[in-house]
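Q: Convert this sequence to structure tokens.
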Amino acid sequence: MNERLEKICFLPPPMDTPWAGAPAEDRSIQVQRSDGRTVALKLPLFWYDPPWSEIEITSADAIAGAVARLGVLVSALRSDLASTDEETELHGASSGEAISIQVQAPESLPRIIPYRPERYGLSDRDFDGAGVVDVRLAMRRNPTGRFAYTPTEIGRWEATQVESPLAGGGWVPAASFPPDVHGLGKLEGKLEQLRLLAGDAAVFVSMDPHRLNEELPAVLRSQPDGVIVRLNALELSGLELAHCVKQTRAIMDEQQCEHLPLWVVPGAISAADAAKLIALGANAVAIDSWCQELINEVRDAQQNATSTSGYSSLSAPKTQEWVDWVEGELFRHIERFDGLMHAMVYQPPEARLATLSVKWASKLSIPTLNVPFDAGS
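A:
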């Protein structure tokens, strides 16, 4: 996997640093709600926008559960993963299968509620046991470029009949704001309402980065428990990505929100990139690109099975294969991320990163390496 931040390196401790045993490893993060309650999360990693409608519903539930058991927060509604009145593994029900896992399943698997303005597919039961409620103020484009949802997405969320799809089977326009909220100035009340509905969850707001200087301060005034910035909405170079994280953190600090978590959705990254983004000021990083490989494999396998048999009902999901992939491939990325994060514990924040590039050093305010040759730009 290519590294976007390869021009940044992790600094080891200085040579004369006294030896010390590795500190106790604690990967968990704590998010404080505006009412003072604390939400404990297992990892600073999350799967922000899984394309659940692209794969068969049983496979979706198995994959969601397997990823969450590794400590990754997974974004999903019940309607994404199960038919009406059925239970899902991610939302607390046992899958009924003996599946070997790397990490013991906690009482509540780490889960994000994607709270879209239109509330398609949302159930009151989605709030039970959630770790984070993600109030999505960023409009998502469908494959045509419209701000809209695809017929497949709507069909999954609303469980519409094939013969009577919503909007006649066409794309459904996306809203820009919850209908019961009249502008950013009234958003605080909505967030407080959601804290009451999800009594054990932190309530975040997710937004696009296009107008951060104007929109982020307004979002912060609504007192969210955290902010998610969708940096993947822009085609950013590695340097632009790193700088945007630094600048966003700086804006939050200037607004006296130093304590507030900044979560970023960076697009394609490596495990090293994820650790570097946290060293640059993010508090958690989306790993959608790590999981997309599996989604692609599942989708292709289902399409091949359907084309061979002629009937989608005959294409049995290879549930155990998908879970094995999560336990092997995804766990490998997470383990590398964990190792890099653990190594940074030895360093103060200002001494964790450096670069050979004068340009990167200047832009990111990190030191250049003291090496006996001209590093150039």
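Residues 319-344 form the longest helix (26 residues).
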